[in-house]
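Ticket #4471: structure export looks truncated?
Reporter: QA, pipeline team
Priority: medium

Steps to reproduce: submit the single chain below to the structure queue and open the exported record.
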Amino acid sequence: MSEEHVDAIVVGARCAGSAAATALAGAGRRVVAVDAAKFPSTTISTHLLFAGGVAELARVGALERVEALGAPRHDEAYIGMPGAEVRGTYSPVDGIAYGMCVRRAGLDLALVETARAAGADVREGVKVTSLVEEDGRVAGVRVSARGMQGEHTLRAPLVIGADGRRSTVARLVGASEHLSNPNERACYYAYYEDPRTEWRGTAAMWLAGRELGTVFPTDGGLALSLLMPPKERADEFRLDLEGEYDRTVAMLPGMAERLAGRTRVTKIVQSVEQPSYFRRSSGPGWALAGDAGHFKDPVTAQGIRDALRFGRLLGEAAAPVLDHPARLDAVVRKWELRREAECLETYHWTNRLARADEVNPLQEQMLRMLAKEPEGSRRLLDVYSRVRRPGQLLTPGFLAGCAVGAFRRRGVDRRALLRTLTAEARTELTTRRDLFRAARMR
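Actual output as written to the record:
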């Protein structure tokens, strides 16, 4: 068995892995990133970035490569539901005031190329088979590849698992979940040809009843059309995928109008089970980045942004202390607590939006009130861009005003509205409790 010593090993070379490898290599460290895929390679993903996510591409150094793929800039976003709609623009993040939706084959290849340009050794088609452990620490990995005789051992002071929700590294280190939430919505998406120029700069979402759908213009002259029906409808989709997809689009009149006359040009991709979680993400000689350590329901499209940001921050934090195990472990643990502190409120907000409930009068009133405010739509988009925390938008005063306005509307089922308010209060209490616990841990 051959053996090689490096400064850091990254398992998985997509968003989080490439960002971590780029930061480590940029700091002068010898880093090897391995991935079972060969790029360009796609993966299941809704791949939307708000302005804050595009800014993370720039911070990693990949934005120029990504923009060369030709995805249109989303200068505005739109949300529509029965009786209410809002359309707005983004507050600039590092001077960037637009979103993008970039197909993963091109996006991930651009990130891999960025890591290589920084000096990272990215090895494709390489699979981790086991970990190397010494004195109670992870000290490397054993890998195999097609055409490789036997296994090859890579040793390093730090192994970063950035290998997705079904992370091999997470499984091998026994990383447990300390927060989790089952998803209530499934995902079904496909690509449509999209010549409609009036929509090419808009990321749009529609809600009606319990249904949710989005259309995001993407590269290649296409648009990503995503449905997130209640998960219990999965059997209906399983029996007639294309028919049920089309019937569900028709339940969302605005989305149906957006796609009218457009041709679906790909198969429909589906993902039914996608629970949200935080896993323990640091230990002696190891860390978990991206979906390997933390995953949020795709309804708020935060995954790529967080993978890029916290992959980069992990690489930047670890690079100076790789030669000092005790300091390295402390730095990586501090990085994990920072990620949890920054993501926890958004995690609970996402779980709230991911409930497959009927659109209710409180939601409609919120959208009406935001649409009336001069900067209301921007305040909402700032939450998606992570410029503003959900609690800074959903203040007690704002929620009280929404509740009063909803109660005053004719035909509102006040008992149902009270149940909605009670559920919102419980969610807020859970969020505050977890934020308090995270603050104590820090």
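Status: closed, not a bug. The export was complete when the record was re-opened. Leaving a note from the reviewer for reference: The longest strand covers residues 126-134.
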